[in-house]
């Protein structure tokens, strides 16, 4: 048995783009940095993430450069021959799940208003008597 599941988290290197296949299937693409090592030996590799179908349709609204996201998906290496004849390889994640809820701007404004209200509550707004 083999399992091919990866989890990557990071800030997008650019805006999410979409395109359609010849059969009309929508593909959303964006890139995430993946750090390896530490200190002087730290290296950053970019992983191309792809999501398909109806889920991909709304991604460009939320996924802009710098947005913090976490993706879960299948890892694969794509190889091809470039125009100049050299062999190229790129790391790709076929995204099954995505979480971009950590980005502050994506949270509803109602939560911000509630937080402002809670932060402005003073002690004289409470009764001195506790019923228990």
* Major sheet attributes: 6 strands, mixed
- Tally of individual helices: 3
Topology as a string of helices (H) and strands (E): EEEEHHEEH
What is the 3D form? globular
Low-confidence stretches: 103-111
Q: How helical, in percent, are the residues?
A: 10-25%
Write structural notes for this entry.
A six-stranded mixed beta sheet has the order 1-5-6-4-3-2. Residues 103-111 have low confidence and may be disordered. It has helices spanning 54-57, 59-62, 109-119, and strands at 6-11, 17-20, 26-36, 43-52, 68-81, 87-99. Helix content is 14%, strand content 44%. It has three helices and six strands; from the N terminus they run E-E-E-E-H-H-E-E-H. A hairpin with a 6-residue loop joins strand 3 and strand 4. With 132 residues, it is mostly beta strands. The chain is globular, with a radius of gyration of 22 Å.
Topology:
Blueprint: E1 6-11, E2 17-20, E3 26-36, E4 43-52, H1 54-57, H2 59-62, E5 68-81, E6 87-99, H3 109-119
In short:
This protein has 132 residues and is mostly beta strands.
